[in-house]
């Protein structure tokens, strides 16, 4: 099964954004994943990883919860 990490910048106040992404992933995939972990960071980081592989990085992608969930989906399907 899949482990998701949402690393977010604490000083930037990105906790709400990280929680929104985590909630959307849990609603979409529920018991198909092992874990969604919030990982604290700094320096403006906002990165989502599926089993260690980056599926979203705010330095490269525009923030869109639905797009992040879609990027996670192949990792969940592959693990099933």
TrEMBL record:
Entries under InterPro entries matching the protein: Selenoprotein_Rdx-typ, Thioredoxin-like_sf
Keywords per UniProt: Redox-active center
Keyword check for Membrane: no
Keyword Signal listed: no
Stored Pfam families: Rdx
Xref: SUPFAM superfamilies: Thioredoxin-like
Origin superkingdom: Archaea
Protein name according to UniProt: Selenoprotein
Source organism of this protein record: Halorubrum salipaludis
Source taxonomy: Archaea, Methanobacteriati, Methanobacteriota, Stenosarchaea group, Halobacteria
């Amino acid at each position: 099964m899949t482990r998701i990490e949402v690393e977010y910048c604490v000083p930037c106040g990105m906790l709400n954004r990280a929680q929104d992404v985590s909630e959307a992933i849990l609603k979409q995939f529920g018991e198909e994943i092992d874990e969604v972990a919030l990982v604290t960071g700094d320096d403006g980081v906002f990165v989502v990883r599926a089993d260690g592989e980056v599926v979203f990085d705010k330095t490269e992608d525009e923030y869109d919860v639905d797009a992040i969930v879609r990027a996670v989906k192949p990792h969940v399907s592959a693990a099933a």
